[in-house]
Write a structure and sequence with these properties.
Layout: H1 3-25, H2 38-43, H3 47-50, H4 63-70, E1 83-87, E2 91-96, E3 101-111, E4 117-121, E5 127-134, E6 137-140, E7 147-153, E8 157-165, E9 172-180, E10 185-193, E11 203-212, H5 218-223, E12 226-231, E13 236-240, E14 246-249, E15 253-259, E16 263-269, E17 276-282, E18 289-299, E19 306-317, H6 320-324, H7 344-360, H8 366-380, H9 382-409, H10 413-427, H11 435-440, H12 442-454, E20 476-482, E21 486-489, H13 491-506, H14 516-533, H15 538-562, H16 565-577, H17 584-608
Antiparallel strand pairs: 1-2, 2-3, 3-4, 5-6, 5-11, 7-8, 8-9, 9-10, 10-19, 11-18, 12-13, 12-15, 14-17, 15-16, 16-19, 17-18, 20-21
Helix pairs in contact: 1-14, 7-8, 7-12, 8-15, 9-10, 9-16, 10-16, 10-17, 12-15, 13-14, 13-15
Length: about 600
């Protein structure tokens, strides 16, 4: 490996380290924060938590107090809670007539890391309700009792309807839910009938959501706990809960998604967008709660006698193909490339994911799929790899002549650089021949860094000693934390590091041993990555280890059986005999080197005087 190849790998390494450090910053747990949204949380607590129903000393209900608090919704102020189940092959929704919304949502095809049922909605914090002004105060429909709740079955769907009655039978609010066969997406229609004289201002939907711990690594799970949204202008953006506490969107919003590492809950406006959205998030001081979100979605209420606002609510996995099928850019919540490497998402979308899906269509062992995917990628970049090895072979042939120049010119680096360029030009060698192929491989490396940790297909899939390819493989839990490393030992990460060091040792004869940076960087870089990769997905570290092994084998085969060093040497000698036409860039570079040499010579003469 020549000096320019090393420079290329150093640049590649620097970019990778920068990218890894940038991502690692997002993995640091947020500093424990105080309860900043007490007033909002208080306003959205169930009524029984806010204040008990006013009663007289005799135990009778204070009707005057109830009329003041509930107004026309007095008939819905009391009742008996009853549950109804709506389910298909993939999800189970448990509805309650109190609030008229799902109080539990279970994904039937998934389990938590400790093999318990996986719920995307469970517990009193999770609430959905309309905020309606009653006597100068907001009444939340999640505290009221709805009627109905009967399930109607169609050919490929099930429907459940809840009605919130008032003192006037011609004035009511209705929720209609429809769940299709095999779908994670549920239709949710809000119908407001005859309420134009009661709801005179905005009509807002309050959505409180909480994600409980589902994965093994809480730190990584919180790093992936984000709120995504898409505006009416089809612009997508997001923020991570550990970095931002609230956001006010005074514009049309098509959907808002509360995303965890592998699952999400998303509210989607179907025909008309939400008028605005206010999102407040926090990370509670709890080892079992990943994050909480308090979201207010303003509906485009037109104050008509019969108002309807159709929505869709997605409760399901962050599966790329599934999310893409809805054609609303919902798949953009999956982190396939961002920041300075945003372009690698197209490599994932157009190359990696289609190949991965093709292989998984007939192979069910994901370890085997990763092996075949690695081989495919190596074949894809084979031309760049071969060009890099050919360049290294040429540099190896020229190394004795470069060593002679170095001895002859000693410490005169300026003169050495000029003579080195002349030698390369006369030999017909491109000094960037080893650098560019290495840099061209960088997008693939970064694409894999984004793809594997985001692939729900790998979740809880085992291979060899790794029980779950979507998280780190641990062969030893240390019981204590080592700074910049962690509290466990990942064998795939160690194998990746050892294979990288072996690759560097194998190429030691092709590096510039006189330059300490060039000499030791190939060994330092893998060790620097050891701590970063120790907590990343086993699929990723297995891929990098396998890629290193293939590189070692390919290099040995190419150098042993394909590249003929004697032939290359003879070709270089023939190139030296041919007249060389300088390019304008080479002429300018040579002229700059000459000027620099003259300046240095003049400065030396002045020092002697």
């Amino acid at each position: 490996m020549d000096r320019n190849s090393i420079i290329g790998f150093v640049l590649l390494g620097a970019l990778l380290i920068g990218y890894f450090v940038f991502n690692q910053k997002q993995q640091v747990e947020a500093v424990k924060e105080k309860q900043r949204q007490d007033s909002i949380a208080l306003a959205n607590k169930p009524k029984e938590e806010l204040a008990p129903v006013a009663t007289l000393p005799s135990g009778q209900v204070d009707s005057a107090k109830l009329n003041t608090e509930y107004g026309v919704f007095l008939p819905a102020s009391t009742g008996t809670e009853q549950d109804v189940v709506l389910e298909n092959e993939v999800a189970k929704f448990t509805f309650s007539n109190k609030g008229g919304t799902p109080k539990e949502v279970e994904l039937k095809l998934f389990k938590t890391f400790d093999k318990k049922p996986l719920y995307l909605k469970k517990g009193s914090f999770n609430r959905i309700g309309l905020k309606i002004p009653v006597n100068d105060k907001d009444l939340n429909t999640s505290d009221l009792y709805f009627t109905g709740g009967q399930v109607t079955k169609g050919d490929n769907s099930q429907t459940i309807t809840y009605r919130l009655n008032t003192l006037d039978p011609n004035k009511y609010i209705e929720y209609v839910y429809t769940l299709s066969t095999g779908s994670y997406m549920m239709n949710f229609d809000v119908r407001v009938v005859g309420m134009q004289d009661i709801i005179k201002g905005n009509l807002a939907l309050q959505w409180n959501a909480q994600f409980d711990k589902q994965e093994q690594d809480m730190q990584n799970e919180r790093m992936n706990n984000q709120v995504h949204y898409r505006t009416g202008a089809h612009e997508h953006d997001y923020f991570t809960l550990s970095r931002k506490s609230e956001l006010k969107l005074d514009e049309k919003v098509q959907w808002v998604s509360f995303k965890q590492q592998f699952f999400n809950v998303t509210f989607i406006a179907k025909n008309n967008n939400f008028d605005s959205a206010y999102i407040s998030t926090k990370i509670p001081e709890s080892a079992n709660i990943v994050g909480q979100s308090l979201t207010t979605l303003t509906l485009p209420y037109n104050h008509s006698g019969n108002y309807s606002f159709p929505m869709e609510v997605y409760y399901g996995p962050n599966h790329y193909k599934t999310l893409k099928s809805y054609d609303i850019d919902l798949e953009s919540i999956i982190p396939l490339g961002s920041g300075i490497f945003f372009f690698v998402k197209y490599i994932n979308k157009w190359i990696i994911i289609p190949v991965f899906n093709f292989l998984s269509g007939f192979i069910h062992n994901y370890g085997i799929i990763i092996i075949l995917l690695t081989i495919f990628i190596r074949l894809l970049i084979a031309p760049f790899t071969y060009q890099s090895y050919v360049s290294a072979a040429k540099m190896k042939v020229l190394k004795p002549e470069l060593d002679e120049l170095r001895v002859k010119l000693k410490d005169d680096q300026q003169a050495f650089g000029m003579e080195q360029m002349k030698l390369y030009r006369s030999a017909g060698v491109n000094p960037l021949g080893g650098c560019l192929p290495a840099l061209l491989q960088l997008p693939i490396l970064v694409a894999m860094y984004s793809f594997f940790p985001s692939s729900i297909e790998l979740r809880q899939e085992s291979f060899l000693w790794a029980a779950d390819l979507s998280t780190y493989d641990s062969i030893l839990h240390l019981g204590f934390n080592i700074p910049f490393y962690g509290n466990h030992v990942s064998l795939f990460t160690i194998l990746m590091t050892v294979s990288s060091l072996f690759l560097a040792f194998y190429n030691r004869g092709m590096t510039d041993q006189s330059n300490p940076v060039m000499k030791f960087m190939p060994y330092v870089f893998p060790v620097m990555l050891l701590g970063i990769f120790n907590r990343l997905a086993a699929a990723l570290t297995f891929y990098y280890f396998l890629s290193n092994v293939i590189s070692i084998l390919l290099q040995w085969v190419i150098q042993k059986f394909i590249i003929n060093h004697d032939k290359i040497h003879a070709q270089i000698q023939e190139n030296k005999k041919k007249p060389k036409q300088k390019s304008k860039w080479a002429e300018k570079l040579e002229e700059m080197q000459k000027r620099q040499a003259e300046i240095q010579k003049t400065q030396q003469q002045q020092r002697k005087k």
